[in-house]
Specification:
Elements (H helix, E strand, L loop, with lengths): L2 H16 L6 H4 L7 E2 L5 E5 L4 H6 L6 H12 L8 E4 L13 H18 L3 E5 L1 H7 L5 H4 L3 E3 L10 E5 L2 H6 L1 H11 L2 H14 L17
Parallel strand pairs: 2-3, 2-4, 4-6
Antiparallel strand pairs: 1-3, 5-6
Bound molecules: uracil.
Length: about 220
């Protein structure tokens, strides 16, 4: 896929998300939040679902949790525009409750298509709902800061999946904040492992983004 084709495919998905009525979350939303970022990135961050600020702005991770995510990225020398950021559910659950299984199921095709389009080397899960999508049965307390091969059925092809605590959890606990910074420091090594894995995988790999993260290469 050329960069233009990739951008166009992401725009098509985003347009569908904005008018989606596949589940009850459509009723309470101000704006759906498809996700945003660099169409040629190697790294996709997946959160849980939009909060109040995200619902108002139609953009992912722009509230307080987003500020912490930006801090995690900055700790690696990365900017949010260089990666892609999205969520498991694209509309805000009322009162920030957990997304329900049928809502996650209804939204699944959008995330799968985003994954198939972006072909990231590394998927970083933020919190347990995102982790559960890629590492069913895992416990966040055990797998944070570690990676595992993605199940291609998720749409993530030959990517590796790396897990972090949810950024909002770091706002509530100094220990989780410290741990999250520690775990984020493992992302560049996971990206190198992901690149190496893709070179030997049978699933076709996307090209490395020119200029992005080359210091780690
Ligand atoms: N929390 C999430 O999981 N996603 C967002 O976009 C914002 C907060």
């Amino acid at each position: 896929m050329t960069p233009d084709e990739r951008r166009a495919a992401l725009d098509v998905i985003a347009a569908e998300v904005r008018t989606c009525r596949r589940c009850r979350l459509a009723e309470g939303r101000t704006n759906a939040v498809p996700g945003e970022g660099h169409p040629e990135t190697e790294v996709l961050f997946v959160g849980e679902g939009p909060g109040q600020t995200e619902d108002r702005q139609g953009r992912p991770f722009v509230g307080r949790a987003g500020q912490f995510l930006v801090r995690l990225l900055a700790s690696l020398g990365w900017r949010r525009e260089e990666v892609f950021i999205t969520n498991v559910v694209k509309c805000r659950p009322p009162d920030n409750r957990d997304p329900l299984p049928d809502e996650i199921e209804a939204c699944e095709p959008y995330l799968r298509r985003q994954l198939e389009t972006l072909e990231p080397a590394l998927v970083v899960t933020l919190g347990r709902f995102s982790m559960a999508r890629f590492r069913p049965g895992a416990r966040i307390s055990q797998v944070h800061g570690s990676h595992t091969p993605a199940d291609p059925a998720t749409g993530a092809g030959a990517a590796l999946v790396y897990s972090l605590y949810h950024p909002a959890a770091a706002l509530r606990s100094l220990e989780v904040e410290r741990q999250s910074l520690d775990d984020a420091a493992g992302i560049p090594a996971a990206l190198l492992a992901a690149r190496a894995r893709r070179e030997t995988a049978t699933v076709p790999a996307a090209p490395t983004t020119p200029g992005l993260f080359q210091a780690d290469a």
